[in-house]
Amino acid sequence: MTSQTEIYHPSRYCKSEGDLIGSAMVLAAAGRPLERLRLIWRQPRSGELLLKIHACGVCRTDLHVVDGELPHPKLPLVPGHEVIGKVIAIGEGIDHVQIGDRVGVPWLGHVCGTCEYCCTARENLCETAGFTGYQRDGGYADYMVADARFCFSIPPGYSDESAAPLMCAGLIGYRALCKAGDAYRLGLYGFGAAAHILAQVAHHQGRRVFAFARPGDETAMAFARQLGTVWAGPSDQRPPEALDAAIIFAPIGALVPAALRAIRPGGRVICAGIHMSDIPSFPYELLWREREVVSVANLTRRDGVEFLALAPKVPVRTETVRYAMADANKALTDLRSGNIRGAAVLMPAP
């Protein structure tokens, strides 16, 4: 796994006519840097698409996978689940996609389609779901094979780079916003890729947005103010008004009691991350008077269709920092240290 010219096949198939060879950044074991390898991608089977990747966003969930905080990833693994690519081959049984179409691939990459959850519009809770860049090889690569059911058409007004963050930061943020109901005073804890998109959507909907950043992170607070928030301050302070709801994007369990202190009776705290550190104990008084704490798990295809129709109407503008695909480790390091304003996006070599 150390040679950069080694050919590695994720599915252990021998190379056959029509298969493609390209580069990818591969995770061999949790806690290790990604390795740049030469891979072979097979042709798509029934229900699948083969994509030429044009851009892939770097999400905090990628950090949780790479750092070993999310258990039992497929190894070796190509991370990445904010994928924008062009369809270059189509498997059997697909008639809604054409060669050359531009599509996006999100975190939820596969479901069984037959379980209780899938049959009751809750496919995000499918017990046998497969997640892109976690159980399925993702977008830190030149190519990718994807389940066609979980590929979305991308609005034409977005470049590949600007569209990539929509596929997770946007989609998970949108699902979290739906959980907030008609909350007028909305708090966003952790002003990164997701919050900078969601603040625009919430402002478009006429909500008052209050942004919380790490104490001392004046850059993030200033960024939040530029995006129309009515207040931006450190996460260890209460906002000037009681909130109707608060969405926590930062993976810090201690923010749950902090957000409960900030919301009014009957308000709701939404934990929007896939991973979060342990929530410390807190007095029942913070939860009393019908306050709620809920989580967001993954997304559904309906979320994707709704959000990608809404984004151009806002219009959502993503702020990105571009990295070469080969510099994925640097992008992850910068994200880990909080040195990215907006969203990091990896771009394969032309």
Structure notes:
The chain is built from 8 helices and 18 strands. It folds into 2 domains: 7-165 and 319-347, Alpha-Beta Complex (Quinone Oxidoreductase, Chain A, domain 1), CATH 3.90.180; 170-295, Rossmann fold, CATH 3.40.50.720. It starts with 6 loop residues before the first strand and ends with a strand. 20% of the residues lie in helices and 27% in strands. The chain has helices at residues 60-66, 160-163, 169-179, 193-204, 218-226, 255-262, 301-310, 328-336, and strands at residues 7-8, 20-26, 35-41, 48-58, 82-90, 102-105, 108-110, 130-131, 143-147, 152-153, 185-189, 208-213, 231-234, 243-248, 263-271, 292-295, 320-324, 343-347. Strands 4, 5, 6, 9, 10, 17 and 18 form a 7-stranded mixed sheet that branches. A 6-stranded parallel sheet has the order 13-12-11-14-15-16, with helices on both faces. A 3-stranded mixed sheet has the order 1-3-2, with no helix packed on it. The longest helix has 12 residues, at 193-204. The protein has 350 residues and is an alpha/beta fold. The model is unreliable at 1-7 (pLDDT under 50).
Key features of this structure:
350 residues; alpha/beta; Rossmann fold; seven-stranded mixed beta sheet; 8 helices; 18 strands; 20% helix; disordered N terminus
Provide a compact summary of the structure:
Helices cover 20% and strands 27% of the residues. It is of the alpha/beta class and 350 residues long. Strands 4, 5, 6, 9, 10, 17 and 18 form a 7-stranded mixed β-sheet that branches. A 6-stranded parallel β-sheet has the order 13-12-11-14-15-16, with helices on both faces.
